Amino acid sequence: MNSSPENSESLKYSESGKYPETAGRLRKQLFIYLSAALLTLMISLTAAIFLNLFENLRESRKKDLFHAAELRARAIDEWTRSKKEVAKQITTRSRIRQELEKYNNGAISAQKLREFTDPKLFDAMSQSDDVLGVIRFDASSEIVASCGFGELLVSDQSVFAFINSGAFLSRPFCVKNSMVMLVRAEIINGNGVRQGTDVVIVSIERLMNILTVSRENVFGRTGRMFLAYMKGEKLSFFPIETCESASGEKASLIVNCSSVQTIVRTFEVEAQKTAALIDCLEKAMKGSKGISLSGERVLAFHSLVESDWGLVLTLDEKELFEHLYQDLMYIVMIAFFIYLAILAGFWHFMKPMAGRILFHADELEQEIQKKIAVLEREIEERKIIEKEKEKIIADLQKATGDIRTLQGMLPICAVCKMIRDDKGYWNQLEVYITEHSEADFTHGYCPDCARKQYPGCFDE
Length: 460
Hints:
By secondary structure, the chain is of the alpha+beta class.
């Protein structure tokens, strides 16, 4: 049953036909399966982490743009606050205020007030580089003194309109190719009674520096800043880049709020994005702040505390997230290299151990193949025995059927002893028994018949 030639043949058959697995192939398959499983795990983890991380980083980049707008808004508010403070300091100079109060009471003449006030105002103006001129009004809003650029504006109706408007800051405008603004400050005496008004003419050069400094570093290549204010029913933009355009026109952009189709522009604003820009500026001027998306542009808008202006920063979405995409690519590359390093480490450090495991697996495989071969042969032998058994049972069943026939009632002739079969034919006794049983006959003579047949030979 366990003869070596048969076992050898079975083993050869198993190795060549039915069981082709080898240690080398198992090793390769194990490495491939591990690589695929590790790759699937890393992709799943990377996707799960990156999707959340990427969205958070996108929001972080948007917040960075918003914080840039917030810092610019604070800087503009600080500049505005400082100019108001400068104007207030000029009004609080007691000697010239007292002289103005005397003038309002008719104690001194306008000529004497001007002779006293003009040098004092010029001295106050010289205390700040941003102050380009001062115009002093009395209690009835009549000009009583001026210096610097104020002398150029004493007959300008826009100054009187500014005084009557009640605003503390005017809109920017050009004087002698310099962009200036008017700052209004009330002159109040010790009893809290208004004695007049000072209009301080300040340069907005520092404001322009705040808006344009390090533009490439802060806002990027596609970044733009817009500072705007309402002028009647129109939205006007600060001339951030220059006082005058190449054609000599003032560099301002004016949009009719009731019809945004009419745009006069001297610096870059794309028409299809103007509506979103206008909307953000109007929100900022109403005191709101936040982030808005318009096509491929990201807009950060912020209100200003010290004025009714609105500030908007815009940047191309591609540039805003450019570093984010690069960082994510670096992370993906690092993860890929880590994946390769893990595979290389497994191949280098686990190969001996895997070899030993697979060697024992080969031995176990051979033993299993031998056992399978023996079992297959035993099964074949049992099948042959089972067939023989079935044949014997069939023969026995047939013989049993014949025996039952002979045990039945047999019609036999009383004279010649012939037997009649089921078909009605008469057969000799020995022929019938031979056909219906396993018995055979041999012929001879009994003693009585022998004497009758051969009387001389068998007599006593």
